[in-house]
Design goal:
This protein is of the alpha+beta class. The protein has a single domain, classed as Ubiquitin-like (UB roll) (Roll). The chain is built from one helix and three strands; from the N terminus they run βββα. Strands 1-2-3 form a three-stranded antiparallel sheet. A hairpin with a 5-residue loop joins strand 2 and strand 3. The N and C termini lie far apart (41 Å). The structure holds zinc ion. Zinc ion binds next to loops.
Length: 78
């Protein structure tokens, strides 16, 4: 499979995906995807996309919680 952005070869990998839904940030580990080594473009199969959407919708209790630091370049001294 070639990348639709830069037409390099894509490799099958298991990655961590962050999904942003409104002001919620979900992190999903162990996601199978094709990843472009050149530009980082990611492609998911329709089945994986559906699972990610379901996770976002169902709001099941996750196995663990990450604390995510949030920075801004707009306020204060950067
Ligand atoms: Zn690419």
């Amino acid at each position: 499979m070639t990348c639709r952005v830069c037409h390099s070869q894509m490799a099958a990998k298991t990655i961590t995906v962050d999904l942003r839904i409104g002001d919620k940030l979900l992190v999903v580990e162990g996601v199978p995807a094709k990843v472009c080594d050149h530009c980082g473009e990611k492609v998911f199969t329709p089945a994986v996309t559906r699972k990610l959407q379901n996770l976002a919708k169902r709001r099941r209790k996750p196995p663990r919680i990450l604390k995510v630091p949030v920075f801004s370049l707009q306020k204060g001294a950067a």
